[in-house]
């Protein structure tokens, strides 16, 4: 249960102001069909994070516990720094209407936008950290993504304008920093 709660909290915070959250806002503004967008985000996230979690579990088996501890600690600290760099959605990443409809466009756009993103990397690290709780990590990171993105789809920019993104990023950075330090000194 710890893996689920930690994964949910970390990803929900990490996703605030992230480019995939901006993508959710853009999809909502463009298509104005919240249910297919939310279901598309869920589908893309569960597939992406299941793959990322599998990579994290695999890395744990390949590396020894001591090496993994240092890599994870350093990765969490690097993630803390990365949280302080705001994301933006480039114009060329704007989803266009496609033959796949709103759901399909959302799945494809969201899956691709999540590749190499903070939350995907966090999923890899969390799956490596909680190696025996792969399913709980993926469930938690997926829930965290949905907690951050579904309200944006329904409430749009009203919600985004009221949330102090810099504060959320700072809190997230502190959490990642603490996790990184704890990981390194726990050996």
Strand count, sense and barrel status of the largest sheet are: none
In quaternary terms, these chains amount to single chain
Contiguous low-pLDDT stretches (5 residues minimum) are none
Order of helices and strands: HHHHHHHHH
Strand content: under 5%
**Overall pLDDT:** 83
Radius of gyration: 16 Å
> What's the number of structural domains?
1
Number of strands: 0
Number of helices: 9
Secondary-structure-derived class: mainly alpha
First and last CA, distance: 23 Å
| Gross morphology | globular
Percentage of residues in helical conformation: over 70%
Would you kindly provide a brief summary of this structure?
By secondary structure, the protein is mostly helical.
What does this 3D model show about the protein?
This protein is mainly alpha-helical. The chain has one domain (about 1-185). Helices cover about 80% and strands about 0% of the residues. The protein contains 9 helices and no strands. The chain has helices at about 1-15, 20-30, 35-60, 65-85, 100-115, 120-130, 135-155, 155-160, 165-185. Helix 1 (about 1-15) packs antiparallel against helix 6. The two termini are about 25 Å apart. The model has no long low-confidence stretch (mean pLDDT about 85). This is GDT1 family protein. Keywords: Membrane, Transmembrane, Transmembrane helix.
């Amino acid at each position: 249960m710890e893996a689920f709660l930690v994964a949910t909290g970390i990803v929900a915070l990490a996703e605030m102001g992230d480019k995939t959250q901006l993508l959710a806002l853009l999809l909502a503004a463009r298509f104005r069909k919240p249910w297919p967008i939310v279901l598309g985000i869920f589908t893309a996230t569960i597939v992406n994070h299941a793959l990322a979690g599998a990579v994290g579990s695999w890395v744990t088996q390949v590396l020894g516990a001591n090496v993994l501890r240092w890599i994870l600690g350093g990765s969490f600290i690097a993630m803390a720094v990365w949280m302080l760099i705001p994301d933006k959605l480039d114009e060329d990443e704007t989803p266009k209407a496609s033959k796949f409809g709103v759901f399909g466009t959302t799945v494809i756009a969201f899956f691709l936008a999540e590749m190499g993103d903070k939350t995907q990397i966090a999923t890899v690290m969390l799956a490596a950290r909680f190696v025996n709780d792969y399913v709980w990590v993926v469930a938690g990171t997926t829930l965290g993504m949905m907690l951050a993105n579904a309200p944006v789809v329904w409430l749009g920019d009203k919600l985004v304008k009221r949330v102090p993104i810099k504060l959320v990023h700072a809190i997230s950075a502190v959490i990642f920093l603490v996790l990184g330090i704890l990981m390194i000194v726990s050996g």
